[in-house]
Amino acid sequence: MTPLIELKSVDLVYPVYSVRAQSLRNVIANLTVGGKLLRDGSDIIHIQALKQINFSLEENDRLGVIGHNGAGKTTLLKVVAGIYEPTRGSININGNISSMIDVSMGLDPNMTGRENIVHIGKMRGLSTKHILDNMEEIISFSDLGTYIDMPVKIFSSGMQSRLVFAVVTTLNPDILLLDEWLSAGDAAFIDKAKKRIDSLVDKARGLVLASHSTSLIEATCNKLLVLNGGEQVYFGDVNKWDFELAAPKPQLATLIP
Amino acid sequence: MFVKALSDFSRGVALRHVWMHHAYHSIHSKYKRTMLGSLWIAGGVVATSLALAIMIGGIQGQLIQSVLPYIMAGLLCFSLSSYVLNEAPEVYMSAASIIKNHAHPYSYYSFESLSRTFFIFFHNLVAFYLMLALVGSLAIPHWSILIAIPVVYANSFLWGSLAAMLGARFRDMRFLLPFVGQMLFFLTPVFWIPTNMGGWRTALLHFNPFYGLLEIVRSPLLGEAPPAVAWNLSLISLSLGLVFWLIFFGAFRRKIAFWV
Which residues pair with A177 in a beta bridge? Predict the structure, then answer.
């Protein structure tokens, strides 16, 4: 069976352009003086954001990604989503990715919630008919009530993320990427969203969830990827990782001498 | 490298129902809650061409009936190719938040903004024919317009993608290129007659791809076949654009997400 998502020794080097490097004057000056006078003309810093990432997911796997701030969780999701191409290594995806990395992406503040559902759905490559067929389900899940016919600019950020979450999870849950989506939304919606994630496992063929909430990951995921400073510390079953000690659980074989 | 550029292109084409919808919608929503609606788009062209027709008609000693269609068609057709300098440098910059969060092919953004320019062009054609009817100079378009419009679209797409990359990588270009566009508006025969130009200034015609791209659409609109020089310029520009696009878009497209 071909894996759903497969990353083979993926490296990502992230160029950061300083103000100077984006100025044409400095680049030209640098060319003419041979890079001696204005050394910072080519002031590009390279950051190794991901280093030797290796994992593969099978159908119906749910991967939780944990790590400190800046460990590379979001970058990894963006590589899986195809936003960044890996500098080295290869990546294979067998399915359609539906991502919820930035909540406000594709929302047009001047359009109503209902119009935005079509807008977001279209942006994700769906047909208008498919979107309209699922319209009522999306609206009822988002719990926005009559707000759905109001312009999105008056929505709070929690309401916006509810709308996007409802669209993304209703329309094409093939492979779903979620990044810290729990930060917005109230307790009741978070509870509902957790249930939705559970039910999605039946519909979606795969899920990658980056989060700081270990309880959420333990409850919803079967696989775990631990990142530290862009490097892969652990990949394997979620119940073989000790969240308290932040280390793999000792294997039975090693306990018994 | 070329394969990546071409696959980006074909994935962009596959999303045509999305960018057509968005291009149409962004025009539509801009004029929402206005009384005259999308007629405002035509307003600018009508006002400029009327003013120019009165002034240039006086200087060149022409009748409004002949100079107004010429100038108005010139303005409309110039907007199709000057897209490269005026709008394209902003394409990736203004889509930065989507580029960083969604893996659309990069050609998608060029298609969307370019289609917006072409939608406005076709919309303005209505106003153009109304004006023609008013001054009594209606003409049946020459058949070659059916080839000319795809050529101009392809040319603007290729060079526009390059300009969009330049604008994202070197921020100065966002300001420099529209400035060049402004100069070319006057240096290209948009409102003046090419035959009135003599001496070394004829270089403005013989080496100016914007003249070629303008004329292959304008002449047919006014019911005439375009001069051969216009087709030569356009086809040279198109082939060069294709070569540069294959090389530079292929080589640097994966860096765009880091530039914006």
Answer: A99, A208
The H or E element spanning position A66 is strand A61-66
Q: Is the pTM of this model over 0.80?
A: yes
> What is the number of alpha carbons within 13 Å of residue A79 lying toward its C-beta?
29
- Per-residue pLDDT at A118 exceeds 90: no
The answer to ipTM > 0.85 is: no
Contacting residues for A255 by C-beta, under 8 A, at least 6 apart: none
Report which of residues A93 and A20 the model is more confident about: A93
- The answer to whether B46 and B116 have CB atoms below 8 angstroms apart is no
Phi then psi dihedrals of residue A50, to 5 deg: -135, 140
Q: Cβ(B234)–Cβ(B155) under 8 Å?
A: yes
A window 24-63, beta carbon within 8 A of B:
24-25, 27
Residue of B102, B180, B249 to mutate for A, most A C-beta atoms under 10 A = B102
Plot region of B134 (φ>0 → left; ψ -120 to 50 → alpha; else → beta): alpha
pLDDT at A253 over 60: no
Q: Are A99 and A174 in contact (CB under 8 A)?
A: no
A23 inside 8 A of chain B by CB: yes
Q: Closest Cα of chain A to B98: distance in Å? A: 6
CA dist list (Å): B155 to A76, B29, B77: 36, 28, 13
pLDDT band at residue A41 under the 50/70/90 scheme: very low
Mean model confidence pLDDT for chain B: 91
Burial class (CB in 10 A: 0-12, 13-18, 19+), A65: buried
* Closest of B222, B76, B195 to residue B138, by C-alpha: B222
C-alpha A22/C-alpha A8 separation (Å) is 33
Instruction: Name chain A contacts of B25, Cβ cutoff 8 Å.
Output: 119
List domains and CATH numbers for chain A: 59-255 (3.40.50.300)
B103·A83 Cβ contact <8 A = yes
Cα torsion A238, A239, A243, A248: sign: negative
Q: Which residues contact A32 (CB under 8 A, 6 or more apart)?
A: none
Which residue's structure tokens are 């303008």? B214
Distances (CA, A) of A99 to A103, A123, A210, A219, B260: 10, 12, 12, 21, 20
pLDDT class of B210 with cuts at 50, 70, 90: very high
Query: Taken in order B168, B173, B178, B184, is the CA torsion positive or negative?
Result: negative
Residue of B32, B170, B258 lying closest to A14 (CB–CB): B258
Mean pLDDT of B153-178: 94
Structure tokens that stand for B122 in this block = 């076709």
Residue A111 pLDDT exceeds 80: yes
- Output A72 or A192, whichever has higher pLDDT: A72
